[in-house]
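Ticket #4471: complex job returned nothing on first submit. Input attached below:
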Amino acid sequence: MIQIKDKQFTPYIENAKIQERIEELAKSINESYVDKDLVFVVVLNGAFMFASDLIKKVTVPSEITFVKVSSYEGGLATTGRVDEIIGLDRSIVGKDVIIVEDIVDTGITIDKMYKLLELNNPSTLKICSLLYKPEAHKGKVKPDMVGFEIPNRFVVGYGLDYDQKGRNYDSIYQLKD
Ligand code: IMP
Ligand code: MG
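Support reply: We reran it on our side without changes. The output follows.
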C-alpha cells in the first residue's frame, strides 16, 4: 500500500502486467504501420512512462513529439475559453499520427486534443491510451487502442498522479475505499 497526502492506494496493475500488455500494443502497431509515416504525439505529463516503454518496442521508423493541451481565456471580450496545443514542433500534415495518452476518463481532454490535431490535416489520426474508464466516458472520440479498461475509480502511478504526486511508481495503484 502507498500513502499520498491524505489518501491510501492499493496495488492494482503491476509493472510486469503492464509490460505484457505493452508488448501486445506494440505488436499491433508494428503490424499496422508498416510503410506508414508514423508520428507519436505524446501527451504530457501523464503519458511519459507509458510512451517510453511502448515506443521502445516499436520497430517501424517513427518520429516522437511531446505536447500539452492548455486552456486559456481569450484576450478580447467574450471569446471565452480557447484551447491550444503547446509543443507541437513540426508539421503532421499527411502523417500517420498516434496520440499517446495515460488515461481517457470523461474524454474531454482527448476530444480537445483530437480536434486540434485534426485541424493539422494528418493522413490518419489514432488514439492509444494506457487506461480507459468506459463508465466515465461522455466524449465523442474513443481510444482506438487501450491497454486496460478499468472501473470508474481513481488510480495513480506509472505516470499518473494524485495532486501531482505518485507519477514515479512503476506500477498502478487504486484509491482505497
Ligand atoms: P478526462 O476526464 O478524460 O478529460 O481526463 C482528464 C485528465 O484527468 C487525464 O488526462 C488525467 O490526467 C486525469 N485523470 C483522469 N482520471 C484519472 C485517474 O484515475 N488518475 C489520475 N489522473 C486521472
Ligand atoms: Mg493526462
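Residues 75 and 116 are 20 Å apart (CA to CA). Closing as resolved unless it happens again.
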